[in-house]
Amino acid sequence: MILKDTGSLFRTVFILTVFFIFKSWGNGGDWPQFRGPDGQGHSAEKGIPIHWNEDENIAWKSVVPGLGYSSPVVAGNQIWMTSSKDGGKSLHAVCLEKTAGRLLHDIEVFTTKDAGPRHKLNGYASPTPVLDGKYAFVHFGPRGTACLDSAGKVIWKNTEFKYNAFQGAASSLILHGDLLILTCDGTDKQFLVALDKNTGKIKWLQPRAHLERADSSPQRAISRMAYSTPLIQTVNGKPQLICSGAFHSAAYDPASGKELWWFPYTGFSIVGRPSYGNGIFYIVGSIRQDHFCIFAVRPGKGELHEGQRVWQFSTGVGHVPSPILVGKEIYVVHDGGVAACLDALTGNELWRERLGGNHDASPIEIRGRIYFCNREGKTTIIAAGSNFKILATNQLKGTFKASPAVVDGALFLRSDTHLYRIEKPKQ
Predict the structure, then answer these.
(1) DSSP string covering 337-394, please?
(2) CA distances from 427 to 55, 61, 309 (A)
């Protein structure tokens, strides 16, 4: 009788364990990649606060080990980020529990004797991970890419892609079916590569083309680098992978890597992620170095002709923060803290206002409200629309470079030392 009860207990424990493992990696309501489910920073979550400070509407504030600027991504009850220790020589995948903020995993994924160079405003753990409901994929540029399971076990590593990211890595990972896609735009080599997400093996590798405008002298090799994250969008029933690079943006077939079309411009060091809506791709490019621009283009084949450029806008477009498209308006914020709203169909400026501070994080939109978080911890919330209206401003401690995540009625903000879960108290 005792043995029978013990067996029943074991079966019950096993069933509950399987249930909670499945629940912790469920796909409903997740924020699995940089800029969220659609890759463009939109959320329909209800009840997100517009007011908070260190003592108000903070469900928890947890230490994030190490130093990193990657944005938090969420699947089920797990939040993943990356960080570095020992001056960039020790590279980590970090996982916190979503509900209570408890540290679940702090896994050293890669070690190196030479951390490599970086820009003074960049770190050694800036690319944002991506989650598929089963695995977490982390990326440290030429230092390597890895896959981990929910228990923190490293499934595979790939360190074969060497390129010169002399300002540090920044392009984030994306997933398409069983493909994990990396953007590797260094000063010496420029290519996109798709890995089998289950094994880390190469499925295709596509060199960047159309860099003939770049100065090919060794002293100007810098002019081939870029840091953008691609966007996959279905056009006429077929997915297209659009990615900004030095001197051009191009669209590729994500299944094969074959180039579909490309659009030329001048300049390099592109960071902003593309957007799509109204039948238009909104591409961050440049009209000359350090003068960034939004190009609104309609997709086609081969080199896009002048008639496919709907408009362009180059006044105060940020270098690091990506624009956000909301219906018929698109919003930009300059790194120096001036925001603007444009008519997404014409490119006409509707308003321009100073928010203040320095901006690295890309803004997000939640049910008609746009959240701009600056480096100094101030978040300005405005009402989406053609008239400028501030709804609230909020201040936290620390340095904020990561973009926000939104899940389960809560906003997650990462500083240089902590991760915040911001939500209204439960009734």
Answers:
(1) SEEEEEETTT--EEEEEE--S---SPPEEETTEEEEE-TTSEEEEEE-SSS--EEEEE
(2) 18, 20, 51
Q: Tell me, what DSSP letter sits at residue 165?
A: -
What would the pLDDT profile of 365-408 be if each residue is shown by its tens digit?
999 999 999 999 999 999 999 999 999 999 999 999 999 999 99
Contact between residue 204 and residue 224 where contact means Cβ atoms under 8 Å apart: no
C-alpha 337/C-alpha 265 separation (Å) is 25
Query: Residues in the chain, how many?
Result: 427
Q: Give the span between the Cα atoms of 410 and 427, in whole angstroms.
A: 15
* Segment (H or E) for 411: strand 410-414
Q: pTM value?
A: 0.92
Residues with Cβ within 8 Å of residue 46, at least 6 apart in sequence = 367, 409
Beta bridge partners of 245: 248
**Dihedral, CA atoms, 297, 172, 98, 377, nearest 10 degrees?**
-80
What is the rounded CA–CA span in Å between residue 427 and residue 408?
A: 15
- Residues 219-258: tens digit of each pLDDT: 566 789 999 999 999 999 999 999 999 999 999 999 999 9
Q: Does an H or E element contain 136, and which?
A: strand 135-139
Is the separation of the CB atoms in 181 and 192 below 8 Å? yes
